[in-house]
Amino acid sequence: MALIDTINPLLTTGWSKGDAGWSLKDYEARGGYAQLKRILASKMSQDDLIAEVKKSVLRGRGGAGFPTGLKWSFMPKAAPEKYVVCNTDEGEPGTFKDRDLMRFDPHSVIEGMIIAAYAVGAKLGYNYIHGEIFDMYQRFEEALDQARAAGYLGNNILGSDFSFDLFAHHGWGAYICGEETGLLESIEGKKGQPRYKPPFPANFGLYGKPTTINNTETFAAIPFILGMGGEAYLNLGKPNNGGTKLFSVSGHVNRPGNYEVPMGTPFAKLLEMAGGMRGGRKLKAVIPGGSSAPVLPADLMMECTMDYDSIAKAGSMLGSGAVIVMDETVCMVKALERLSYFYFEESCGQCTPCREGSGWLYRVVHRIEHGQGRPEDLDLLNRVTDNMMGKTICALADAAAFPVRSFIKHFKSEFEYHIEHKKCLVDPEVQRAGSGFFKAGAA
Amino acid sequence: MNNQNDMLSPELSPESLKKIDREVAKYPADQKQSAVMAALVIAQDEKGWLSKETIAAVAGYLGMPPIAAYEVASFYNMYDLQPVGKYKLTVCTNLPCALSGGVHAADYVKEKLGIDFNETTPDGKFTLKEGECMGACGDAPVMLVNNKRMCSFMLPEQIDKLLAECK
Ligand SMILES: Cc1cc2nc3c(=O)[nH]c(=O)nc-3n(C[C@H](O)[C@H](O)[C@H](O)COP(=O)(O)O)c2cc1C
Ligand code: SF4
Ligand code: FES
After folding, report:
1. Average confidence (pLDDT) over B128-141
2. Pick from B64, B68, B104: which is nearest to A437 by CB?
3. How many CB pairs below 8 A link A and B?
4. Are A251 and B100 inside 8 Å of each other by CB?
5. Alpha carbon of B86 to those of B4, B111, B123: distances in Å?
6. Lowest mean pLDDT among A5-14, A268-277, A423-432
7. pTM for the complete prediction?
8. How many CB atoms lie within 10 A of CB B149?
9. Quick one: which ligand is closest to A200's CA?
10. Is B41 in contact with A172 (Cβ distance < 8 A)?
11. A171 near B40, Cβ under 8 Å?
């Protein structure tokens, strides 16, 4: 197919010119909006379109990995008013890929959303953008203006009988709005407190109307999938794990950043791409899918390939693709303390097990870190997590529990050392040097 | 005097109202409340912070109960319900940033300014806040200046530069 030549299947092709390559003309020059044009010109049926996406086995890039085509097929056909919503509330610690998509290739997200709207029959859409990246919100608005002026948005798109308009909505500092129903509440101008599910957004979404909500990267992949065909996209990755994925590599590597690799790429390769371990130090642990995913010790991680199934088999989750790399200078108790504080801070407070449990977790980890831990504390922490998991409206409670359980499971001796000796196993000076903030030798 | 009254008045300027109108237009006609988050930011930008009266003015303009707007303003972290310094610095101290110096950067700013988190310098110039992941962990340490400007790779030298730049 000629289209393979015009649209490169890689999400990051548009990034090579940095901040100079994001605008409409650049996107069109690399084959952008060709898929939308083709769909409209050929009057492709909604079913065929969804079937193509299903074939790609694209799985949602926001964390849960739910098959995108299947999600779209849940939208009721007859409903008169439907919405498409993009989740760019990227707040899962470690994740910074959607920001770069907004920055370097916003039109791929716009085209993906227009195509999704066509597939599910929506006339209006919103992109919910993390408040902390306000400059990307502004850039996205500019991109929307460009798309509207070119006739890709609005009434009768490109002369067809399909109409769709799209707007940007920004958050203002609440992690919980990344949860899809919290996000919908937030667009409605309320506190971002998640809703009970079911009903799912496909039946009861924005303003109570059927709504398809996907992550930024999920939408961005759509034009490429249609360009090369679902099957070719699937084959880029491995069975059940289609395509390529952006991985945000942070922490103790030489070159933190976003790396796009085919699903199934060995972790060792990704680490090498990110420049290897900072200062040649030893890998200690990796959180492979954002802070809500269980931590894996180095030896387990080095055997993983970067795809949903391999990471799940090792006992963690691919999640959002945020790979947090920790070397031997890290005190695991302190690392967990930071995460537990985050979940305590960000619990929306609706569910007692989450509100109270996240507070307990933080306070107990905090006291262990500060030399006041008790021998029974590790059992206490595990018991608290038992009372949180699967007992709440949304998955934040589980997200708070997973790090605690996995840190204790894999690094128990470090916690025990803390409790017994009232100090870190890792020398504080070594820890301090590890961050690279202070120049070597400086006070 | 007059000027000061303008600052204290909860009424929003015509420019701000125009910006809010632009936000309202994004949503279905019967869903004006959807614009409340953006409207509160616009109001905060104009007034420096959100007093109860300012929040009520925003609510009134959008035709929603003041308490509903207040709930929103108090739920989201980046609304300031108390006066803040001319420059509000928010440092990310979450784990991915901490691995690359986020906590140390916050400590450095604290020492330089002589204040802790949630404090303002006596001259009213700086307020320091602790932030959660800003989705920019690859650029750690990161901090926000007045919510909207993100500063990346904030090592001691860059922090010194930033503080000197804030006049
Ligand atoms: C606490 C919590 C935070 C979340 N944060 C995000 C987020 O920042 N971005 C995102 O796309 N999905 C996030 N999700 C997942 C969304 O609820 C939802 O599954 C996703 O947006 C669906 O899109 P996808 O199928 O394309 O992945 C979060 C979920 C939970 C429980
Ligand atoms: S689990 Fe936590 S964050 Fe989720 S709805 Fe319940 S209280 Fe809110
Ligand atoms: S952890 Fe600081 S920006 Fe993500």
Report:
1. 97
2. B104
3. 178
4. yes
5. 16, 19, 10
6. A5-14
7. 0.96
8. 12
9. 1
10. yes
11. no
